[in-house]
Amino acid sequence: MTDTRRRVKVYTLNEDRQWDDRGTGHVSSAYVERLKGMSLLVRAESDGSLLLESKINPNTAYQKQQDTLIVWSEAENYDLALSFQEKAGCDEIWEKICQVQGKDPSVDITQELIDESEEERFDDMSSPGLELPPCELSRLEEVAELVASSLPSPLRREKLALALENEGYIRKLLELFRVCEDLENREGLHHLYDIIKGIFLLNRTALFEVMFSEECIMDVIGCLEFDPSLPQPRRHREFLTTTARFKEVIPISDPELRQKIHQTYRVQYIQDMVLPTPSVFEENMLSTLHSFIFFNKVEIVGMLQDDEKFLTELFAQLTDEATDDDKRHELVNFLKEFCAFSQTLQPQNRDAFFKTLSNMGILPALEVILGMDDVQVRGAATDIFSYLVEYNPSMVREFVMQESQQNDDDILLINLIIEHMICDTDPELGGAVQLMGLLRTLVDPENMLATANKTEKTEFLSFFYKHCMHVLSAPLLANTTEEKPSKDDFQTCQLLALIVELLTFCVEHHTYHIKNYIINKDILRRVLVLTASQHAFLALCALRFMRKIIGLKDEFYNRYIMRNFLFEPVVKAFLNNGSRYNLINSAIIEMFEYVRVEDVKSLTAHIIENYWKALEDVDYVQTFKGLKLRYEQQRERQDNPKLDSMRSILRNHRFRRDARTLEDEEEMWFNTDEEDLEDGEAVVPPSDKMKSDEDLMDPISKFMERKKLKDSEEKEVLTGKASLSGRQSPSFKLSFSSSPKPSLSSPPTASLHPGSPGSPSSPGTGARSSPPTAAVTTKGGLVGLVDYPDDDEEDEDEEDADSKEESPPLSKKSKLSS
């Protein structure tokens, strides 16, 4: 009993669907005389008290989960779980359970497959059905036990359902309920609760139709008030008859429709409020109840949709100025619920539904409602508008473009939406966030249509930037007239953050429309004023906006940024932030790092020339020194255009190989065992080893012979005699070994870009401080870019002497470029 294999925790499921720990102990299985069967016993490890005594019921569904957990549901809707310390202990108890139930221990759910004997099957097929006890007060306990015992077996459930249908048994039970309630027979009422709940779990539409009929549904709800686990009965019927009142905002002439609405509300109430939370094994048993509610809603929507008189009256009263506020409030709430019901429709039915509403004039009606002062009415109208935008944004866009030809900008539907967003009184701006999401959907080119004769994207964006963008950006422009935001309270900052986020979205998706707007209205300068806000989230929004613009690598934007010195507020925000390691610090460094890595030449030069003094002391990241290095290399290329042209010549002719050779080299590289390589050695592709010197030299020498006749300056660059104005010589070197055993040298591509920031040193280069120079060797009239190993020492000595005599001391700029 004390071994760890049998050590378990006992859990029970509470009303909130959370598992409660009942204690730790050791589990065993034994025959219990009182329970008349094999039982699971758990005794506490602390004091030996009995934590659990549960009979292994042949009809109970036990489930094994995750190798160390056994879960089951007792008959009294009481879910239990044993969590084992070791898998071996769980397997041992699982075998005992399966042994009692006659199941194979390899299954995970003991009642998943009903394994009935041949005799039982013969009896089931031959017997006409289940025989129910007479529906009498004295037999209620027997009926309750019969229902409970039938639930685990699908075949018995089927028979029970047929018996209940054929004998009209439910109506008889409800008559008994009224008798028990009159007699205040609490025991009988508790049995009826168990019976009715069991009938729900049979999951039969035919039974639901009887139970949810007009004459039966309130008695069914009454039965479910008397839960045996509660000290006092619930008062569901009282709530439904007195508190919940049905309002007909427009009189419904069809009695069938009215009855269907009542029924749906009550069944929904039963599902949500009356029935207890289903246990793990009951969740799928109420699928038919969900379907019953679903199809009722579909039917209600269809019946209302077909009633043209009803919808015409609804929209007429909505837009009528004579309608009082309370009535309009009810009408809007009805329309909102009507649209919510439509979400249950199939796609083709939903299409028909929204087309009907569109033909009835829902968008003009919403425009009128959104112009009203009542906050609740406007909130409901916003919800309705969101349904329309999510369903078909193109329909909304078409409407607003048509109305722009007749109305002023102030009363356009989209401008009303923007104004409500700006004027949201909620401190958390819940409504503004919702409206901003709708605006984003409307201006998103991804869901815009393109037809043969017109493009919705072009037309709508032209309309939006002409008629609406000035309304959206008005709070931003009003609040950024100086170097700091004029209003910096939390609510204003939240609103500005929403506006900047939408502008950022436009930068990403709207290309030239937003570009023209930003440059003409100087929007980026205004947005960058927000980096001085005391609220970090707003400053980060502004930085994201600029980062998105820089990320486009558009020279129009870059010239605009440089012309107006728009990095200045960013650098100020960086310096004001000090050495604090936070999001603002990281966002700004990442922006400069992007300019460096992507080598945006114009911005690199602008930043170094204007802000280097402010940034040169920042050494905890190498970003700014890397930018300076990029700038120096750029200047070097500008001062020596011949050097740049030589690089391109050498790239094009010296290292050109066919694709097949590259593939062979890659194959060789990946097939090489890392352990075969010594530290500091690089692999030489076999293609290089196999080619003879003459084969490789031939195209190079021919090319150089053609270039011999060029001006003498270029020759000086090639021979390395010129000192390149005191700057570092380009690191080009190609060596061939004539010895039989090939020497390992670094791949030629490793030194293509001298001095590139952050590039790792090539393997095998050693610790030499002077860079290798390009040498021209002439043998037998051949001119080639070859540096023979035998001449290495002489060449280096000459170069050292030359550099001492001719080269002036390196300037600060030269040091940086090295």
Automatic annotation (TrEMBL):
- Superkingdom is Eukaryota
Query: Serine/threonine-protein phosphatase 4 regulatory subunit 3-like central domain: from which residue to which, for each copy?
Result: 142-633
Q: What is this protein called?
A: Serine/threonine-protein phosphatase 4 regulatory subunit 3
Q: Which organism is it from?
A: Sinocyclocheilus rhinocerous
Which Gene3D superfamilies did the record assign?
Leucine-rich Repeat Variant, Pleckstrin-homology domain (PH domain)/Phosphotyrosine-binding domain (PTB)
Function comment: Regulatory subunit of serine/threonine-protein phosphatase 4.
Q: Where are stretches of biased composition, namely Basic and acidic residues?
A: 703-718
Question: What PANTHER family does the entry give?
Answer: ATP SYNTHASE GAMMA-RELATED, SERINE_THREONINE-PROTEIN PHOSPHATASE 4 REGULATORY SUBUNIT 3A
Q: Where is this region: Disordered?
A: 669-818
SUPFAM superfamilies recorded = ARM repeat (SSF48371), PH domain-like (SSF50729)
Quote the InterPro entries the UniProt record gives.
ARM-like, ARM-type_fold, EVH1_PP4R3, P4R3-like_central_dom, PH-like_dom_sf, PP4R3-like
Q: Which Pfam families would you find in this protein's record? A: EVH1_PP4R3, PP4R3
